[in-house]
Amino acid sequence: MKPREVGVEEARRIAVRAQLLDGSATSVLDTVRRLGFLQLDPISTVAPPQHLVLWSRLGPFDRAELDRLLWEERKLLEWNAFLWPAEDLPLLQARMRRRDGPWDRHRIEFLKEHASFRRYVLRELERRGPLLSREIADHAPSKREAHRWWGARKMGLMLGVLNARGEVAVVGRRGRQRLWDLAERWYPETPRIPWAEAARAFEEKQFRALGVRLDKGRWLAHPDVGDDAVAKRVTFLSPFDRLVHDRNRAEALWGFFYRLEMYVPKAKREYGYYVLPILRGDRIVGRIEPLHVRTTGELRVLGTWWEDGIRPASLKATLRDLARFLGASAVTI
User: Fold this and answer.
1) pTM, whole model, 2 decimals?
2) Which residues 6+ apart lie within 8 Å of 22 measured at CB?
């Protein structure tokens, strides 16, 4: 079946249903498979984004299940700062082998320039892995240099490049620290797929996960996603949630202009440091700035803003649900 053209109201319903934000999500694994991936980020003003994205769909869930799926059952895998369904590994490995993208060329040049450093890291992992980055001593010939993301020590940068190229894998975590090992010892054997075929598969998966796409001013719906009415369920969205991650698409669908202002100087912020969109049914109706104060066990609401023409609604039930998930004992507004 071919995509069909729909109006914006129907497109909103389809987008919400495709992303399982209609209350139909049933499990962590099925949700990740449906979404395609979860983005990782160290910022956890409320909760890490991978947890918040799942909570928005499942409500309070057992976060230990995510770890079991990753490190024990291996039904999910971590690669390049995202969590992926393990069955997508052949497609991911096709992406790892690519050489023609600008970042691919940059990484390949980096590995050529630091060939002895690369050999040293792979030797250490082969001999002693799995290892944390800090458990691998500096490669003395490479020396330390200041870097805006990686600091002066280059080990994290090298491991990240080797991970992107498919030579090393994240095989576990100690707290927030990644455990690294040789990819060949962690990834199973898979069929080799050409990148062109993998790219088509990724494109189809993305269209299915998003439900609709804007093509030359027309909203086209994926044929597999229904457009039934969406119950007026209220939840909060992570800034990294796929429903709003494409800011231009979110504005086209809902007239909702959104940006993450944590990198904006405080005096220039329109809203707040870490503000979450409020989804009610198939409409984005406002924004909220919650803060999880872990030292006091409190979920604090620093501000709430409603979109023009939206009648404010009670958020108490959703905040209680979020507090329970976070283990917060009180909600302060």
Assistant:
1) 0.94
2) 16, 230, 231, 233, 282
